[in-house]
Every structure is written in structure tokens, then in C-alpha cells.
Amino acid sequence: MNRKLAKAIANYQKIDAGAKSLSNFQANSDLPAANAETDGIHETWTGTNEQWWNWYISLADNNKESLNQETLIPQNEQVALQVPSIKELQQELAEPYPISEDQIQQFQTESYIRIKNILSPGSLCLLRQELKQIFYRHHKLDPNRQFSSMELMWQESDIVKEFVLSKRLGKLAANLLQVSSVRVYHDDFLCKEPGCVRTPWHYDGFHYPIASNNVGTFWIPLQSTPKAMGPLELAKGMEIYKLVKEIPFDKFSQGHDHAIIEILEVLGIRIDREPFLLGEISFQHCLNVHAAAANRTTEQRIAFGISYFENGARVISSPTLMSGDWQKFMPGIQPSELISSPYNPIVYDLVD
Length: 352
Ligand SMILES: O=C(O)CCC(=O)C(=O)O
Ligand SMILES: [Fe+2]
Description:
Low-confidence stretches: 21-25
Oligomer: single chain
Mean pLDDT: 94
Helix content: 25-40%
Distance between the termini: 47 Å
Bound molecules: 2-oxoglutaric acid, fe (ii) ion
CATH class: Mainly Beta
Largest sheet: 7 strands, antiparallel
Radius of gyration: 20 Å
CATH architecture: Sandwich
CATH superfamily: q2cbj1_9rhob like domain
Order of helices and strands: HHHHEHEHHEEEEHHEEEEE
Structural class: alpha+beta
């Protein structure tokens, strides 16, 4: 192991042991009590998926950028654009995106790819309106909420369903992952309210209960997303996850995120922190290491995540609490079984 890396990990383990011996052990108020009885992750998540996200962002180290609610940066509200009719939307989403061999190679090497103009601004505006409507059908406005999240939005709306089950996105995911057929795992409404803290560093493969590396996620910002609003931050390279894998996870503190920040810095790993334009999206391989910045603006940062996996993949044999309430995303499917519930339809198949 690289000497600098070994030192950074040893340093983290010392801090982590110190924190635990000071009985910081059950100090995370976002962790459900039943999950605070052990210090491991090899157990079922006992809260909801929404609580999972709240707990997860509580593990982000925000020491470097303290957030002050009074100094949020004023941002123009997302302007309402002319939205397409359902027919126009269906036409747009049926159109395959012509991805080049070079782009596929780039994705396979760097572990993610950004693509511009994949969805029209009008369609994204329609998606944003629809997602907000669904979210507020279920949740009250709450000024204390930092992160507003919800999954399986496509089950509640024909418009969202058009996006999630679209040939445009499904085929693109299959082409980038180099597989012949993909199913959907879940979608994710990811709204950082003004002043919301960072999302900790991670790779999704550590979270997904799927026994395959052919899994990827579109991250679709639903407004142009400057650095101050909390865009995704993407480490370049398919091997970077190996560094992160070495670091023991701590479900109570910000130590894990802190250690990754240190390691990425010490080793000079290249990180893409560029803003996203409206219509620009990223697709991350499940081994891509990423985080997201805090939202320092006065407006909501809304992104829509859609995750696809190789058709034929199974559930891992022992899912952990890192996967949240994963059975919601594949009702009736047990560990080690083939993932084929009605919530995971085939979205693209080469032979169709
Ligand atoms: O939007 C965020 O803050 C994080 C999203 C993320 O990690 C993901 O979609 O995999
Ligand atoms: Fe992620």
C-alpha cells in the first residue's frame, strides 16, 4: 500500500478509536436507536429511506466550509419554461442518444461521464414541476428539513415513468455499461434545501445490494447548478474506489468522510467539481467515488437520480444497513435472488 495512504488510514483509525472510547458511540441522533446498538453495518436498516438520507448526510465533514444561514447566496428562481406535451415528451425520450466509442471508453476509464443536451430544458422543467408536486403531496413544507428525498417517484406519475422507463436513458445506460439489457433499480428525488450540508464521499457500489458491478446512475440536475448550489463532485478513475474501500466505515461520526477527503487530497486524485448546465447530466459507474457540495444558495438544488443495473443480476447474500430499506425497491425479492420484481422492469434490451 502507498505509504501516504497507509499513514492517512492509521491516522483515521486512531481518531476513530478515540471517538468511540469517549463514548461518542451512540451520539448520532439521525441513526435509529435499533441501529445504534452495535458499531457495525451488517444489519438491517430499521428506519425509512428518507431517514436513511438524513442520517447519511449527517456523516459529512463540513469543517472546511461552515454554513451560515444568514449568508446564503441569492440565486434566481428557476424560470418556468414552455413544457412539452406528453406526445412531444414521448418522442424525445424514444430517440436513442448517439454515444460514441470514445465516450464509452472515457466512461469505462474515468468511471463517469458528463453529457450535455441529453434532455431538453422544457422536458426537465416538466419533470421538476411533476417531482415537486409528488413530493409535496406526501410531505409538508418544513423549514427545518435540510434534505428532501423520495424514491420510486415513477410509480406515482405517468410523466416520471416516461423518463425512468425511457429508451433514451435505458439504452444509453446499457451502452455505457457495455451490457445488452438493463433493468431499473430505483429513482431518487434529491433536493438539497437552501443551507443543506455536503453529501459525504462514497461509491454507490458500497450501497447497492446488487451482486454486479454493471450498475450505473444518472444524476440529472433540474436547474442549472453552480458550484455554490451543491453539484456532484466526481473523482476521476475506475480504481479510486479501492482507496475508499480500505477505510473502515463509521456510522456514528464524520470520520469516514474526513479520512476520504484527506486521502484524495494527499494522493492528488483528480476531482471534477464543475457546475452543471441545465440539460447536462452525469452517469456514474457504481465504482465511481463521488460526493456533493453544500447548497449555499437561497434556492433548492433538485436533482433526479435514476439507477439501472444489468438484467440477470441478483441481490447480494447479506445486504447491510448501507442499502437502507432496499426491499421497498424490489418487493418480495430476497437476498441472493434474481432481481425481477414488477418495480424492476427491463428498460432496454438489445433484442427488442
Ligand atoms: O445528490 C446528492 O447529493 C448525492 C447523490 C448521489 O450520491 C447519487 O445519486 O448517487
Ligand atoms: Fe451516490
